[in-house]
């Protein structure tokens, strides 16, 4: 009984996070400006981390944890590099 | 002791990270982690970080719980703003706040606290005048925010870092 | 079949509540990203997912695996620490880049924003200064370059 509650709420959480990722993707594709797209990407990878953690809970394996950690590291580096590019790419020096 | 342990806090954090990543406290991993925690901080010497001392561990713990409470509260506030149907009547703008805090580590912690709290965002710091610019999502009273940042966070950070 | 069945009821219930709360907060943040009108408002939205949203899911994961393996599993705390350290830095970099671009393109901005820009420009100087070795203590407590003389740049 209680296991069904857990499985149900995990499914709902996965759907909610998929919707959140869709929203972030929409912002990433739509813009209107480059900084909005980078912000969308930032939100997208954070939601991906949460989704991976929920996959981990669902399958009962801690292997997803490493994947989530790698996405966290790469996502931060990506956002930082893109922000730096937005700053430097436009400078006329 | 001082010669080998250049940055004690960094070494402790590295050891803790190693043990958490391997999910064990076995002797072998303890030794390996300790060796890494002793060696890696040597690369930090090239950066020449300015020396700073953390004081008053009690205040650090108090600041942690204050920030935790504020994050939970402002999460609810921002979620309410997003989910409420009308967007009229809400103004968001930049606010300038003069600070007395000058320690770079203290300022970095303050920047992280302000940005991590939903609804407030650290925009820039003028090191000549000590004025920080913060973007606030739901700006009702400028002085209220000034009191929160100066009275709540800056006072404790001044105690910790200076 | 999922291994969920062997879990004590309190842990299953706590995990469900926390997972739903975290996912809901992440969705709310994503909605904010869609609803807000200006970029500077939108930057506030993802912090919902990174602070309490991620916190809830990570605590849920900790509770679940601790109950499942009947030993404390706390390695999720690494992701929590990493997210709380990196997200503010990434967002601050992004906001500075956005301000810079707005200024380059000559968009209209009010006086406070203009002030933030000048602060942003001047903030670049002391970073270079901080890398230098500390100044030697002079008698009288006066240090060269600690703000008494202003850089003409």
From TrEMBL, chain A:
GO terms for molecular function: sodium:proton antiporter activity. The chain crosses the membrane at residues 6-26, 38-57, 63-87. The keyword Cell membrane applies. The keyword Coiled coil does not apply. It is found in: Cell membrane. Keywords: Antiport, Cell membrane, Ion transport, Membrane, Transmembrane, Transmembrane helix, Transport. It is a multi-pass membrane protein. It holds the Pfam family MrpF_PhaF. Its main location: membrane. It comes from the Bacteria. GO terms for cellular component: plasma membrane. Belongs to the CPA3 antiporters (TC 2.A.63) subunit F family. This is Potassium efflux system protein.
From TrEMBL, chain C:
One of its GO terms (molecular function) is sodium:proton antiporter activity. It holds the Pfam family PhaG_MnhG_YufB. InterPro entries: PhaG_MnhG_YufB. The keyword Oxidoreductase does not apply. Keywords: Membrane, Transmembrane, Transmembrane helix. The keyword Cell inner membrane does not apply. The chain crosses the membrane at residues 12-34, 46-65, 77-99. Residues 132-153 are annotated as: Disordered. Residues 143-153 have a biased composition (Basic and acidic residues). PANTHER family: ANTIPORTER SUBUNIT MNHG2-RELATED. This is Na+/H+ antiporter subunit. It comes from Nitrococcus mobilis Nb-231.
């Amino acid at each position: 009984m209680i296991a069904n509650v857990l499985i149900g709420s995990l499914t709902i959480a996965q759907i909610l996070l998929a919707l959140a990722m869709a929203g972030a993707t929409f912002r990433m594709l739509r813009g209107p400006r480059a900084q909005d797209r980078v912000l969308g990407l930032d939100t997208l990878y954070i939601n991906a981390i949460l989704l991976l953690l929920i996959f981990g809970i669902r399958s009962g394996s801690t292997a997803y944890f490493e994947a989530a950690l790698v996405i966290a590291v790469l996502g931060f580096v990506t956002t930082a590099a893109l922000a730096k590019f937005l700053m430097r790419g436009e400078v006329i020096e | 002791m001082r010669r080998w342990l250049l940055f004690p806090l960094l070494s402790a954090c590295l050891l803790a990270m190693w043990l958490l990543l391997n999910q064990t406290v076995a002797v072998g991993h303890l030794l390996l982690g300790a060796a890494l925690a002793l060696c890696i901080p040597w690369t930090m010497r090239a950066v020449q970080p300015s020396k700073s001392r953390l004081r008053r561990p009690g205040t650090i713990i108090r600041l942690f719980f204050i920030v935790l409470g504020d994050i939970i509260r402002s999460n609810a506030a921002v979620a309410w703003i997003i989910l409420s149907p009308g967007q009229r009547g809400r103004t968001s703008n930049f606010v300038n706040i003069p600070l007395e805090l000058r320690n770079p580590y203290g300022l970095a912690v303050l920047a992280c606290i302000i940005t991590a709290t939903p609804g407030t965002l650290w925009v820039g710091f003028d090191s000549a005048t000590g004025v920080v610019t913060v973007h606030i999502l739901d700006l009702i009273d400028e002085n209220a925010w000034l009191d929160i940042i100066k009275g709540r966070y800056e006072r404790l950070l001044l105690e910790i870092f200076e | 079949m999922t291994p969920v069945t062997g879990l004590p009821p309190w842990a299953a219930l706590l995990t469900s509540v926390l997972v739903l709360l975290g996912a809901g907060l992440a969705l709310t943040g994503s909605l904010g990203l869609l609803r807000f009108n200006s970029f500077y408002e939108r930057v506030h939205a993802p912090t919902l997912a990174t602070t309490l949203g991620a916190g809830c899911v990570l605590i849920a994961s900790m509770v679940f695996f601790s109950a499942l393996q009947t030993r404390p599993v706390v390695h999720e705390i690494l992701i929590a620490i990493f997210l709380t350290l990196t997200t503010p830095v990434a967002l601050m970099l992004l906001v500075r880049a956005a301000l810079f671009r707005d200024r380059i393109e000559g968009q209209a901005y009010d006086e406070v924003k203009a002030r933030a820009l000048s602060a942003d420009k001047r903030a670049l100087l002391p970073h270079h200064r901080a890398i230098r070795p500390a100044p030697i203590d002079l008698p009288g407590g006066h240090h060269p370059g600690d703000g008494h003389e202003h850089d003409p740049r």
